[in-house]
Amino acid sequence: MKVSTEQKAKAAYKEGGVSVLLNTVLFALKLWAGIVTGSIALMADAWHTLSDSLSSIVVLIAARLSRRKPDKDHPFGHGRWEQIAALVIALMLGIIAYQFAADSVQRLQTRQETHFGTIAIVVTIISIVAKEGLAQYAFSLARKTNNVSVKADGWHHRTDALSSVVVLAGIFCAQYFWWIDGALGLIVALMLFYATYEIAKDTINSFLGESPSQELMDEIAVKARTVADGDLQLHHFHIHNYVTHQELTFHIRLDGNMSINEGHEVATRIEQVIRDDYGIDSTIHVEPVGYEHGND
Question: pTM here?
């Protein structure tokens, strides 16, 4: 199903607004619990939660920018602002992860232990439930609208929920191991580094360009043959993702005795079918049967 830029922007506004509100409340709760108990893991978790609010603000800004119409300087629109937003979120996660790791190593070196209490347990459980709920909400909107920045924000919520689970487990072990708080900080940092890698990898792959899926190529080949009789020998597929829309290019081979008008008509019919069925704008290069490229 083709999703309009307007729908994607609305999804980002909804998810971003809910995220900023809830994360601000959770940040205050976690920071208070961290200060009361003196826990580096809880305070790190609190700042992780605040970073969710910051990343959601980035999502909101990207949603506004991506709604701009194509212009002379940007003929393919501004949809890639969503991918830029996802990279910004990944960078934020990486910086926070590094700081957590550094603080945790320092605490382990000084053999500093932490005494948790009921406050830490209650606040951490509230955080786990709230953040996983936010993650599910973001993933649901991302599936419906294919908004990559909302999906990235969902992963940010998920890592916060998981880091709180780790913190909760550590709270119950703190009475047995003096080093548990520092170790938890390192674990949270590793989780954040992994989230950074996953978000950055997907976004960078999209920027660099990807091959269409084999399934899509096979389906297009079948539809093309319903438009024009015979084996069109479709090849050289390339797809360009501009987030708000996609551009597909490929080659077809036709009878060399066809006129330019006849070949153009066949290519135009195929392009229309692809646009109607997939919402993808395509450009088709026509070649005579038997022609071989040097890299074929």
Answer: 0.57
**Contact between residue 203 and residue 83 where contact means Cβ atoms under 8 Å apart:** yes
Q: What is the CATH number of the domain that holds 105?
A: 1.20.1510.10
Model confidence pLDDT, tens digit, residues 66-75: 666 766 766 5
- Residues 148-165 have a mean pLDDT of 79
Give the end of a domain, one of 146, 174, 208. 208
Tokens representing residue 176 in the block: 């047995």
The conformation of residue 76, written as its DSSP 8-state character, comes to: T
Q: Contact, 62 vs 171, CB < 8 A?
A: no
Q: Which residues contact 26 (CB under 8 A, 6 or more apart)?
A: 46, 49, 126, 127, 130, 131
Residues 47 and 185 in one domain: yes
Task: Report the percent of the chain where pLDDT is more than 90.
Answer: 2
Least confident of 122-126, 137-141, 270-274, 277-281: 277-281
Domain range for 252 is: 214-288
Closest to 92 measured CA to CA, from 29, 44, 148, 156: 156
Residues facing residue 248 across a β-bridge: 239, 282
